Amino acid sequence: MSVETRPQPSGTDAQSTELIRLENVTKRFGANTVLDRLNFSVDTGRHVTLIGPSGSGKTTILRLLMTLTRPDEGTITVDGEQLFPAPEKQIRQVRKKIGMVFQQFNLFPNMSVLRNITEAPVQVLGMSRDEAEERARELLELVGLTDKCDAKPTRLSGGQQQRVAIARALAMRPQVLLLDEVTSALDPELVAGVLDVLRDIARSTDITMLCVTHEMGFARDISDRVLMFDGGRVIESGSPEKIFTEPEQDRTREFLSAVL
Ligand code: ADP
């Protein structure tokens, strides 16, 4: 099934394919420098995975892109527009290009599944309720939950709730989907269903994905590029084949042998 996302930039120069760019981004929490002059970019339509030990700054990057936290230094650009530093109005505009799925699903417990998905498109994008519902039904088909439109989230399994959260993020037609360890809070038997849905989305849509995951098999399947983090810096990057089969850095080898 093909689900449209927003029109992608159609310029002809090499720059126009770059959707996200972080330049010299530093983030500190007190005396703790969590990201240290970080540079990387993600091209439109690509699926990039961030791997590395706990505490290496991966989630902080996603939170910076979601504007849940702000950098101390550096610039972040999304689709050619600056997200940081920028006036608040511009930050709110640029931020609409980005959707995120968290470990915890954070669905509204008192609203039906359909309403959970339609609320933001109606309230934030000003979409008509009919259009939002039509789109929500398409997305529920994509995540395999067409029969759960009217259910309350509390009646669903964790895996089903996470699939609703994925549909809810896509309903805002983001250009990039950030996935932060989306299966970490799930019972093991529910993990595969959620990962299958994400594989399907990676294959069948043109959305750009930036994932933090401990699921190395999944990372290998969906990624065009894998970035290995350690101590707030990218210490190695490359194709999944290179990173998972012949990493250059000892630190990457150590990390992979501990998690694989
Ligand atoms: P990862 O996702 O790689 O596990 P995080 O980005 O979550 O790493 O965290 C990187 C570091 O930043 C950790 O040392 C963590 O304790 C610290 N950190 C993250 N968020 C906060 C916060 N809100 N306040 C203080 N320290 C934080």
Describe it for me?
This protein has a domain at 106-173. The protein has a 6-stranded mixed β-sheet with strand order 6-7-8-3-9-10, sandwiched between helices. The protein has a 4-stranded antiparallel β-sheet with strand order 2-1-4-5. It has 260 residues and is an alpha/beta fold. It has helices at residues 58-65, 88-95, 113-123, 129-142, 158-171, 188-204, 216-222, 240-245, 250-259; strands spanning 18-29, 32-43, 47-51, 73-78, 81-84, 98-101, 176-180, 208-212, 225-230, 233-238. A hairpin with a 2-residue loop joins strand 4 (73-78) and strand 5 (81-84). It has 9 helices and 10 strands. The protein binds adenosine-5'-diphosphate. Adenosine-5'-diphosphate is lined by residues 29, 32, 34, 52, 54-60, 212.
Proportion of helical residues: 25-40%
Task: Characterize the overall form.
Answer: globular
**Tally of separate helices:** 9
Structural class: alpha/beta
What does the radius of gyration come to? 18 Å
Mean pLDDT: 93
Low-confidence stretches: 4-15
Number of strands: 10
Main sheet: strand order: 6-7-8-3-9-10
Tell me the fraction of residues in β-strands, as a range: 25-35%
In whole angstroms, how far apart are the ends? 32 Å
Order of helices and strands: EEEHEEHEHHHEHEHEEHH
Bound ions, cofactors and other small molecules, one mention each: adenosine-5'-diphosphate
Strand count, sense and barrel status of the largest sheet are: 6 strands, mixed
